[in-house]
Write a structure and sequence with these properties.
It contains 7 helices and 8 strands; from the N terminus they run H-H-H-E-E-E-H-E-E-E-H-E-H-E-H. It has a 6-stranded mixed beta sheet with strand order 1-5-4-7-3-8, with helices on both faces. A hairpin with a 5-residue loop joins strand 4 and strand 5.
């Protein structure tokens, strides 16, 4: 499967430790009021009992089906306020749609992507874009990217259907527009291009030229 199992030590939840709780007083002592404000704006909602408002079952892409991943397979966040989003990572599931959704709902899997695109173009969202999905096998990339899985196999060219390309391109176009991500190969990357990964997806049969043309077309003239 395209998504990598990130161990807790590599991409675990950042807890609000004693240092963070004391930073306000320490910074104030040296007159760093701006530092205090910025730090607290990032951390206040991580205090026990404090959560940013969420709408249950809400999706970030219109028409997507919501099927929540296990909370063990992503980290709650408030992107792009706490982590800027500047990448889309393209994955291939190395399996079927149903099995992919099932493992992303398994807390022992320790990995999930934000979206899965089925062969027929149906899009399922499993992790909100607000949150850090464990999909790339690289903590920094997880924090800065949206991960999209595509049903199929890297060595099976027939996996990548017209419906899949079109649907995924519309999804990526919407993500790029939402965060101001340039539509190019520096910012829309394959899992294989993530530093430190041992994965090969999306593989040699993924047509990058076609995909970027479709993403640009979905965004309109402003993406060219």
């Amino acid at each position: 499967m395209g998504a990598t199992k990130d161990v807790a030590a590599k991409d675990g939840d950042r807890r609000l430790g004693r240092r963070a709780l004391l930073i306000g007083g320490a910074a104030a002592a040296v007159g760093s009021a701006v530092l205090v404000r910025d730090e607290l704006s990032r951390l206040w909602w991580r205090l026990p009992g404090v959560e940013k408002p969420r709408v249950a079952g809400a999706v970030d892409f219109r028409g997507a089906r919501w099927v929540p991943a296990s909370a063990a397979n992503y980290r709650r966040a408030d992107r792009p306020d706490d982590y800027p989003v500047d990448r889309v990572v393209v994955h291939v599931t190395q399996g079927g749609y149903e099995s992919t959704v099932k493992v992303f709902q398994d807390p022992a899997h320790r990995a999930a992507a934000h979206y899965v695109v089925r062969r027929d173009g149906r899009i399922t969202q499993l992790v909100r874009e607000l949150d850090v999905a464990f999909h790339a096998g690289n903590r920094a990339y997880n924090e800065r990217s949206v991960g999209i899985e595509h049903e199929g196999f890297v060595e099976d060219a027939s996996s990548f259907t017209d419906a899949m390309y079109a649907s995924s391109a519309r999804l990526t176009a919407a993500i790029c527009a939402r965060y101001g991500i340039p539509v190019d190969r520096e910012h829309i990357v394959g899992h294989v291009e993530v530093p430190g990964t041992d994965h090969t997806d999306p593989g040699r049969f993924w047509d990058w030229d076609r995909y970027l043309r479709l993403v640009r077309a979905a965004q309109g003239p402003s993406a060219h």
